[in-house]
Design brief:
This protein is of the alpha+beta class and 659 residues long. It is built from 11 helices and 36 strands. Helices cover 18% and strands 31% of the residues. 44% of the residues are buried.
């Protein structure tokens, strides 16, 4: 039987000057009770808890390595932290990778001025890497275990975990201290000043809220942990992370409406893995449906491929999120926004039941009016006829025997199914299985749709605020910058390192007074779409007062907190003005140089970098998909949170040719 190694940390009894909390130990109990009551038949359980005085800086790090490090490649690792979160100045060596010059941190019991440090995000990355690659005795692991990190603290943004309503009586926030942290203090000397590289180990990270929000604490537990455990119990663990995200967000918003949990899938982890499993799911597209501001809405919009003004109906089945996914009504899309749309709903129950019910709802797309993608079909007449009769056009992929239309894909049927890419003039997939060829057609079509994704709104001018450049690094680490959207790169021994071409994209921000969320996707020739480092957040300072807009949006508490402490200069250090030069404010989109290699046996390739820039956070994993041969029915779920129409895309074509 596989083992589950869990380390659960909860700290209520913080020392002065930090406020004591109420619900963190309750969080640990809820997760521990869930593990023992629901997962004992799946795993051999190995659960350790560190509460209050036990959760010192050294003890958390030591137990992380000694306990979680025991996990074999087939086992599961789960680390949970409930407590104060903060931001602190990072070691100067990290500044080249992060223009904020800050660590996002978790406060341990003894994290005090002139005493123990906070546990920084870069240390957590190092600890995850160590657990993934080696056992406590130093023996190397051939594969990483499945790793889940859940953090009920604000570790990646405003640095606060607080509440502004009477329902939430605690404040889970901690002020920053202006001490200078040496590089050697991070994860007991993990980092080398000569080669700073923050490891991107495959794992799933779940946090309580977005960067510009605060998270609630009560005497019964945190809003996030309560909603998260509720969603897990209702699903009975038979759930994908993508589905769990939808249910957790809905459950948390019923507890605290302004709080949105964040799921991140690091180093190409799939959102469609089953919870605590390496098994990937194959399920239909479903999106949260909810009632807000006197209107019904679905989190599905133009950025997913819907046209602005469809001429045909977009029909949706409304389902409960129970295991049977019971249908309770239907709906039609009235108005399409960037990431959410308004619905005219026909429910099989009275609408007023929504306000008192704790039932969550999802929408399954029955028919939708995205621009149709045509695929040319030819071959044996009888087999073609049979395939056409069995083909479903629900995803707006239309098969045609006509050669008059320009198509990206063509299908030839002669005993086997052969799929061709008409742009590349090559065969890309062969199978004798009808279900497999249907999946391949869908994945390749979705890849081309994402390639073509752009904001048709002429009023969106967000792309005027920045420029993008690529830095290619050769074997001797000499960097050469390239500009423009199409790059032709000659690969030779001079610019290869370990048969790979080093690349690091960066942007130069011309308008440093607004917020930007950058999402850089890599689109490979196998029709996979990955987002190697999730989003890069640039914090704008609109009024130029040295406090970023993101921090000011965190509420009255954040503003009062800064006015009350004497460390305001520490906050001012990471303002955009510090990084300006003639091109603008430099921001690396990938923290490390990444290698791009030609496929085995190929002398050339064409791949793409697709950049999405938004004014609000995007659930980037909606666009992730595996390559051909990885069977998943839909690559655009789940839908993202609301985003204003202020978004733009940029695409860079990489033509790599072997000399």
């Amino acid at each position: 039987m596989k083992s589950l190694y869990a380390l659960l940390v909860g700290i209520n009894d913080y020392q002065s000057p930090f406020e004591k909390l109420q619900g963190c130990k309750k969080d640990v109990k809820k997760i521990s009770d869930y593990i023992h009551s629901s997962l004992g038949d799946q795993f051999s359980l190995n659960v350790k808890t560190l509460l209050d005085k036990q959760a010192t800086y050294d003890n958390v790090i030591t137990t992380f390595e000694s306990h979680l490090g025991k996990a074999d490649p087939e086992d599961v690792v789960w680390f949970h932290f409930s407590g104060h979160g903060s931001e602190e100045l990072s070691a100067p060596e990290f500044h080249v990778t992060d223009t904020t010059k800050k660590d996002q941190t978790m406060l341990c019991y003894d994290s005090l001025p002139n005493k123990a440090y906070n546990l920084a995000d870069k240390e957590l990355a190092a600890l995850i890497h160590m657990v993934a690659t080696s056992f406590p005795n130093g023996e190397k692991k051939d594969k990483s275990p499945h790793i889940l990190i859940s953090l009920d603290c604000c570790h990646s943004g405003s640095g606060t975990r607080s509440a502004n309503t009477a329902q939430f009586s605690g404040i889970r926030s901690a002020q920053s201290f202006p001490r200078k942290r040496p590089l050697s203090s991070n994860a007991k000397g993990f980092y080398n000043a000569k080669a700073i590289s923050i490891p991107m180990t495959p794992h799933i990270n779940i946090s309580a809220c977005r960067r510009n929000e605060v998270a609630g604490d009560t005497n019964t537990g945190g809003a996030f942990t309560s909603g998260f455990v509720k969603a897990l119990k209702e699903s009975k663990s038979d759930i994908t992370y993508a589905d769990l995200y939808l249910r957790t967000r809905a459950a948390v918003k019923k507890i605290r409406s302004l709080q949105n949990p964040k799921f991140s899938f690091l180093a190409e982890m799939s959102p469609y893995l089953h919870f605590l499993s390496k098994i990937e799911s194959n399920q239909s597209a479903e999106y949260p449906v909810y009632f807000s501001s006197a209107k019904w809405r679905i989190k599905y919009g133009a950025i997913h491929g819907l046209v602005k003004k469809p001429n045909e109906k977009i029909e949706i089945d409304i389902l409960k999120t129970n295991r049977a996914k019971t249908k309770v009504g239907s709906a039609e899309v009235l108005e399409i926004g960037a990431q959410e749309s308004l619905l005219e709903i026909n429910m099989a129950f009275e609408i007023r039941s929504w306000f008192s019910s704790t039932t969550l709802y999802i929408g399954a797309i029955k028919s939708l009016q995205v621009e149709k993608e045509h695929v040319t079909i030819s071959g044996n007449e009888a087999e073609v006829t049979q395939f056409l009769n069995n083909w479903s056009s629900i995803e707006n992929i239309e098969l045609t025997e006509s050669n008059d239309l320009k198509t990206n894909l063509s299908l030839e049927i002669n005993d086997t199914f052969c799929l061709y890419d008409e742009n590349r003039k090559e065969q890309i997939f062969v199978t004798s299985n009808q279900e497999e060829i249907g999946t391949a057609i869908h994945q390749a079509t979705q890849w081309y749709r994402f390639l073509d994704l752009h904001n048709p709104d002429p009023l969106s001018n967000i792309s005027d605020g920045f420029t993008i450049e690529l830095v290619f690094q050769n074997a001797t680490k000499t960097s050469v910058e390239y500009h423009g959207n199409a790059q032709v790169i000659q690969v030779s021994s001079k610019n290869e390192k370990n048969e790979k071409l080093g690349i690091q994209p960066k942007v130069y921000i011309k308008n440093g007074r607004r917020d930007y969320f950058f999402y850089l996707f890599y689109m490979d020739e196998d029709y996979s779409v990955t987002c190697p480092e999730e989003e890069t957040l640039f914090r704008g300072d609109f009024d130029g007062d040295g406090v970023t807009d993101m921090d000011e949006k965190s509420g009255n508490h954040a503003t009062d907190h800064r006015a009350a402490n004497s460390f305001n200069e520490a906050e001012r250090i990471s303002t955009p003005d510090d990084f300006k030069h003639e091109k603008g404010i430099e921001q690396a989109l990938w923290k490390d140089v990444k290698g791009i290699a030609l496929s085995e046996g190929k002398s050339s390739s064409t791949t793409y970098l697709k950049l999405i820039v938004t004014s609000q956070e995007l659930d980037y994993f909606q666009f992730i998909q595996g390559g051909l041969g990885i069977h998943r029915s839909d690559s655009t779920k789940p839908a993202s949170t609301f985003m204003a129409d202020d978004w733009s895309t940029l695409m860079i074509e990489l033509n790599v040719n072997k000399e």
